[in-house]
Structures are given as structure tokens and as C-alpha cells.
Specification:
heterodimer; A: mainly beta; seven-stranded mixed sheet; four-stranded antiparallel sheet; B: mainly beta; six-stranded mixed sheet; 0% helix
């Protein structure tokens, strides 16, 4: 157990629907990162939050949004889902905003859009 | 923006032979470089990192990586591969002044008995 908790582990939904993925970072970590892993595009950086504030944004679609709450957990919201959104979504946490700190990954949430 | 490239989708080696998984990077300043491993149905696990100093970095499970600034490379190595090393390996880079970490596309390592 890495200490980073992601729920749900698996999610099956239909096109056009909206889902929310949740991440609880490791105790004491202030940074949360979201990544999307698909077969054809590897591990894509989506967004980074530090202590409730957005710090960096990657290849995140406008249909996707995220936030980090005061208790430091984070949610990734995916709306108007398309077949191509089917992927593994990983959350990772670290203690600091930047630098050489190691990211600790959760086990991921597997989203299947039918 | 920083980026990494892993030129090989797949690396196959025989058990007991040395292995190398290649990674090259692009970053504006001095890089922080990382290797992670992903086993089936698991999240990524940290193996090792380079910050500064000795160009040869030792990590978990007998892995090491060599930083080469002139070639902008950070290849992962192990002197003697095990079947249990079979997994997906990711190289990652962070610009010291940026807040995100960028990963390569991954290299699938298969070690055959």
C-alpha cells in the first residue's frame, strides 16, 4: 500500500455521462498530480495541485476539471465522456510543490466508457 | 517545456544477462531525472533519481542509472536481469523551476528464463 488512495478502482459508464474520481494523498503530502494512462498515449500529465491551488496544467481537456479540497483530497471530474476517455487515471502525491521530491502513485482508477 | 523520450517500446533480454532501458531528456535547466516501474494492474513505483553529483545513481532492486549530460541521456541498467524484472519502465524529468513531472511513453521489459 503506497498510502495514496484512489476510488473507485473500476468504473464502467456510457458515452455522454459524467464521473468523478477521488484521490486521498499520502499523509502529510500537499501536492496532488493527476495522470492519464492509455494504451496509445502512455502516461499523460493532466494537472497538479499544491495545498489547494492549481500549480500546473498539462494535456487536460476542457471537459475535464479537478480541484483539491481543504483536507487535501482531490477530485477529477470527467464530463461528456467519449469512448477515447477510457483509460487508467492515476493520482500521485508528494510532500512539496516542486524539486526532486518523489511522486507516490495510487493504484489507479480504470475507466471504461461504452 | 521539459520532455523525455524512450526510444524503445520493448526490450527483451535473457535472465542473467545485463539489461539497458534507454531514456533521453530535454529540459532548459539542470534536470531532475527519475525512473519508475509499473507491474501489471499496479501503480508506478519509484526506482531511483538523479539530482546532482555522481553520474551513476543506484536504486532499488539492483537497478542503477547513468546520467550523461553531453548526450542528455539517463539510461537504466542492471548487471544481471531477473524474470521478476519484467514490467513497464518509465523515465521522468522535472525542470527544477516547474511544478509538473513529465513521463516518457514507457518501455516494456521482458526477461526470459
Amino acid at each position: 500500500d503506497s498510502g495514496v488512495t484512489q476510488t473507485p478502482k473500476h468504473l464502467i459508464t456510457a458515452t455522454g455521462q459524467r464521473v468523478t474520481l477521488r484521490c486521498s494523498p499520502r499523509s502529510g503530502d500537499l501536492s496532488v498530480y493527476w495522470y492519464q494512462q492509455s494504451l496509445d498515449q502512455g502516461l499523460q500529465f493532466l494537472i497538479h495541485y499544491y495545498n489547494g491551488e492549481e500549480r500546473a496544467k498539462g494535456n487536460i481537456l476542457e471537459r475535464f476539471s479537478a480541484q483539491q479540497f481543504p483536507d487535501l483530497h482531490s477530485e477529477l471530474n470527467l464530463s461528456s465522456l467519449e469512448l477515447g476517455d477510457s483509460a487508467l487515471y492515476f493520482c500521485a502525491s508528494s510532500s512539496h510543490r516542486a524539486g526532486a521530491n518523489v511522486l507516490t502513485f495510487g493504484a489507479g482508477s480504470r475507466l471504461t466508457v461504452l | 517545456a521539459q520532455s523525455v523520450a524512450q526510444p524503445e517500446d520493448q526490450v527483451n533480454v535473457a535472465e542473467g544477462n545485463p539489461l539497458t532501458v534507454k531514456c533521453t531528456y530535454s529540459v532548459s535547466g539542470n534536470p531532475y531525472l527519475f525512473w519508475y516501474v509499473q507491474y501489471p494492474n499496479r501503480g508506478l513505483q519509484f526506482l531511483l533519481k538523479y539530482i546532482t553529483g555522481d553520474n551513476l545513481v543506484k536504486g532499488s532492486y539492483g537497478f542503477e542509472a547513468e546520467f550523461n549530460k553531453s548526450q542528455t541521456s539517463f539510461h537504466l541498467k542492471k548487471p544481471s536481469a531477473l524474470v521478476s524484472d519484467s514490467a513497464l519502465y518509465f523515465c521522468a524529468v522535472r525542470d527544477p523551476y516547474n511544478n509538473d513531472m513529465r513521463f516518457g511513453a514507457g518501455t516494456r521489459l521482458t526477461v526470459k528464463p
